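user: Here is a favour to ask of a fellow structure person. I have my own habits and do not want them to colour yours. Could you put it straight underneath, so I can go through it closely?

assistant:
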Amino acid sequence: MQPRPRIVRRAVHGVLLLDKPLGLSSNDALQRAKRLFRAEKAGHTGTLDPLASGLLPLCFGAATKFSQASLDADKRYLATVQLGETRFGGDLEGAVIERRPVHTTRADLETACARFVGPIDQLPPMHSALKHEGRALYEYAREGVEVERTPRRVTIHSMAIVAGEHDRWTLDVRCSKGTYIRTLAEDLGAALGCGAHLAGLRRTGAGGLTLDRAVTLEALEAMDEPARDACLLSADRLLAECPEVRLAAEEAARFLAGMRRRIDLPDADCVRVFGPEPRAFLGSGHIAAGELISTRLLSPVEVQGLLQERTP
């Protein structure tokens, strides 16, 4: 048998909006994309369960410096909730614990959804990646061990009915980071008095990033390398909700050196900073008391690498 040809890695910079398929872990999806791009460095911006599909932003090269922004961003999901069945783990994969009759109308569901909009406390599920004494909770769950957890405060910005009837409904959920949609489904079922589990989940947004520009792994595999590279977005797209600041060449060089700069702009917790060249992203910063202060900086080599990725 012929040995598999060795992959020659290369410097790749940018953000790929991947439409992750069902049944694949976030890390497996990342590794497949990394091989296709032959990228030296890559990372994802937060785990999406194998039972969930949808938007998974992947960062390559210099873009990995800004992955935390997407981790911290609000999220948006299409969640399918099955009423009348409570399952172990809160989703379709778990065994049925209890079945109850469902007498829920659309009006009942709308009223129940409204109760959860705003800041709420959630008890993290055992089937989660949260750590306890160095081990993920899902590892304890697989052993049948229940670990005491502390409720976490999250925010549900909105929860609207998209489709459904009787015992199966699809909801459009906008929420803060760290929200467990399976727990939300269970709590919704408890509020309705019939129980529920999460029957399907698709992430449609993360901060300013949306699913409409995402590509599938199958589509990437069918492309040649230049076409794949053309799918990459600039690293600053991870900070799409932050205002822009543009600097002249001399000021840009000082900013990249980590020097504070006086600037006539209002205070801001996060800004995207650009140099004089079109789309020459330099890094992130914040403005306080009339000073522009760097937060995460790109090296001159990384700046040039991002510009090359944007060149047709």
